[in-house]
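[recover] target loaded
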């Protein structure tokens, strides 16, 4: 029995160490910000990252605003997407990052955070920033649609940061639910059919005994 207990303890330690290895700390990320997507969580396809990088490069050239997105697999215990995002923003932009936007996505918990510099905040008020993270980014992420989430988020941000009207989040797709209720027309037809069946049965119940009686009498 001792060897079973030891094996169980070893497995628990192994799982714990693996979990710690998957967690990401701010100090483990590059000292300088990437350009423009850092996919630590490995949730985006290379083609999507390339497409988004081109969009963000053009946005930077046109407006001077720099948008970066970091995906992570998981965080250390007690860390949140917001606390991590705040620390990373301070590390990468110690001067305040007036024209910087940083989005942090944690894949395992499907949580996200958006940090913005002083010159960007007027374009991204709290309600808009929350809508971007919760509706544009996380809604498809929770359905494991990571690439579309990234593309939609960057496209929406690009329009807003260019001073154009906010298009809002993509419409939520609601899968149609097959109902078990009959329509009025179906109910009427079923009622008519049932009535006809009852009438036929009543006629047969009356005719059959009479026919049987006369058959015996005529014999």
């Amino acid at each position: 029995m001792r060897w079973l207990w030891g094996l169980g303890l070893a497995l628990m330690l192994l799982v714990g160490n693996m979990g710690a290895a998957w967690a990401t700390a701010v100090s483990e990320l590059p000292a300088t910000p990437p350009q423009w997507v850092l996919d630590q969580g490995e949730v985006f396809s290379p083609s999507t990252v390339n497409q988004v990088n081109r969009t963000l490069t053009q946005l930077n050239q046109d407006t001077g605003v720099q948008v970066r997105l970091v995906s992570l697999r998981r965080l250390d215990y007690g860390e949140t997407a917001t606390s991590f995002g705040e620390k990373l923003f301070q590390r990468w932009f110690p001067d305040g990052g007036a024209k910087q936007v940083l989005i942090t996505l944690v894949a395992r918990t499907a949580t996200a955070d958006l940090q913005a510099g002083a010159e960007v905040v007027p374009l991204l008020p709290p309600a808009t920033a929350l809508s971007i993270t919760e509706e544009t980014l996380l809604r498809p992420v929770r359905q494991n649609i990571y690439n579309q989430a990234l593309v939609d988020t960057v496209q929406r941000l690009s329009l807003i940061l260019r001073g154009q009207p906010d298009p809002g989040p993509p419409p939520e797709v609601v899968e149609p639910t097959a109902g078990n209720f009959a329509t009025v027309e179906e109910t009427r037809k079923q009622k008519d059919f049932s009535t006809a069946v009852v009438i036929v049965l009543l006629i047969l119940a009356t005719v059959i005994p009479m026919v049987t009686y006369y058959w015996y009498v005529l014999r």
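[recover] notes: The radius of gyration is 32 Å.
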